[in-house]
Structures are given as structure tokens and as C-alpha cells.
Amino acid sequence: MVGLKQRFGVDVVGNIPAGLVPPVTPNPQLFIKLVGNAFAIAVVGFAIAISLGKIFALRHGYRVDSNQELVAFGLNNLIGGIFQYFPVSCSMSWSLVQESTGGNTQVAGAVSSLFILLIILKLGELLQDLPRAVLAATIIVNLKGMLMQFSDICSLWKANRVDLLIWLVTFVATILLKLDLGLAVAVGFSLLLVVVQTQLPHYSVLGQVSDTDIYRDVAEYSDAREVPGVKVFRSSVTIYFANAELYSDTLKQRCGVDADHLISQKKKLLKKQELKLKHLQKDKLPQEQATSSRDNSLSVNVNTSLGDIKSNDVEGFKTKARPENELEEVVASGQEDVNAPDVPTLKALGLPQLDFHSLILDLGALSFVDTVCIKSLKNILGDRSGGVHCILPQSCGHPA
Question: Nearest to residue 52, comparing CAs of 19, 91, 82, 21?
Fold first, then answer.
């Protein structure tokens, strides 16, 4: 041997154990102690593998199936655990070396695996005096392609600054923290941005582009014109509990449809109608009683028996029970011209008249619904005080 470590103090690879470890049944007592670290290692290993897989897939034009990769890693770690292997994941340096040498198929992976197996069994001792600096230089040279991803910052700044922010937060978190904590911070930050983006949606009133069937935002496209009598309102994000109130407020601002105010005014109006009906019933009841008594007194003569008088009294009671139904029929038919309650129109509610008769809510961005969204839509669609027809076109592939 050259003796670089003994003669010159060079840091070398050192002892490489040869041979395969015999299979051993895992100790169940270690499961509880290692479950937390095992979960973190599994998440980090799978994240690294999928990230590298997608990078290479974009370079070479193929698709990576995440579910298939997860099953493959699970089987490898399950079998490798019996042989006391390290957790199986993707080697960044080795993958880049293989790509740089032109290995693009599974044959290259099989040849690499056989070569590693040969080193483990027989050739490992030949690499014991290999300087670590040589390995480091090889890895750094092959990491050049990964480091070139810093050039993506400029393109992300122009394309999508939200993606750039996620990229920077992930990079800083993985550098300052451990890899598993950095990934956890990146995932949490991404979820937080999703919630924030739903709070900053783009609402628009759509108009038809001249001589086409295309509808665009009338505020952004000068050629887009609203269809007379029709309002088309669109949201760029899904509607759920966090932004349902914002959706209703923007609809009120853009289209003048204040569903909550209309519903509250209608309830007040209905209460007034009920009070008017009660007053009408009270006013009609004495008149009907007097008329009934006069009719019954005229129907009795000197030859009337006691049974006939009782019969007439029963008929009188039936007549007394009649005015309430007759009153409802009169009010419903509109014959009561003075005391009849007003029809619940916008004018009766004290609101300005709308300049459209149909409201179309474009819910193409609606990916899911919750109870708050359903209640908001019911308030908008269920109120017909303004005489406006509300339409929900089925823009998505399945009914909402």
C-alpha cells in the first residue's frame, strides 16, 4: 500500500468491511424508540428521491410516478431492514455521475449495482487508501449541474414570485436547520401561502368579446362588453369558510346584489305582513259575528222548535269560524285594496332597482365546497326579492 495516511497524514477512506451481513429479525423493542426518527428519515429520503427524479424527468422528457416510487422504496427498505442495511434512498452524487456519463436507462443502474456488489465482496480493500479529497472533488464536479439551479431565480422572478419565495425559504431552511426540519418548514410555508392566496383572489365581471363566444374581464379587456341585462361574476379561487364573506362582499360591490341585506329586509317585511293580517282578522271578526247573529235571528219564527234553534246556533258558530279563511282568500286575491300588504320587491324594500335580470356565477375554479360556502350560495340564490334569476353553469367536470 502507498501509506498516504501514515507517511503524509492524508485523510483516506479507511477500512471498508467486506461481505454481506446475514439476515436478522428486527428487534420489536426498538420500534417505539425509533419510530420518530424513522418517519423523518423516510420523509426526507422520499422527498430527495422524488425531487431528483423530477429534475431528471424534465431534462430527459419522461414522467415520474410518485406512487410507484413510494412502493419501490417501501419494498427496498422492508427487505433491506432484514439485512441491516442503511435506509434506501437516492444518491445525489451517484445519480449525477451516472447522468454525466450518459447512463439513461435501467441497464446503467443494473451495471452500477453489480459493480458496487463486486466492491463490497472483493474489491473494497483496494479503495482503503483512496484520499477523501478525490471523492469530494468527484462529487463537487458532478454537483455542478445542481448548483446551476441558482440561475432559476431570475426566471422564477419573472414567471411566479410565489414559487421563488417558496424556493428561497426551502433553501435557507435546509441550510440553517437540519434537512428534515427544513423540509417541514418548507411544507408548512407552502400550505400557509395557499391559505394566503385564497384570501387574495381575483374577482371579475365578465363580458363577451365582440364577434366571439369568449368572455373576459371587462376591466382588463377593452373589447369585452357586458351582455345587456346579464351579469357574469367569476372568482379565481374556490369558495370556503375563509373567503366566503369576501366573495359575498365583492359580489355586492361589483353587481349590487346584497343578499344578506335583502334577506333581513324581507324578514322584517314578513313580520309586518303578519301583523297586518292579525289586525285585519280582528277588525273583520266583530262584523262577521254581527252579520251572523242577524241572519240567525231572521231565520227563527213562531213555529220554530227548540231543536231548530240549537241547529241555527251551530250554524252560527260555523259562520263565526269562517271569516279567517275568507280573509286569507281576500288578501291573497288582492281584493283588499287598502290594508293589503305590499309585495316584497326592491322598491318596497327601499333598495335601488337593479339594471339586470339575470346573474350568472361562474364557479369554474370551485374545487370543493364546505357548509359555509353552501350557506353563502343559498343566501345569494335563494333570495328572489330583486326579481333576478341566478344561474350556476356547470363549468367543472362534476357538479358542485
Answer: 91
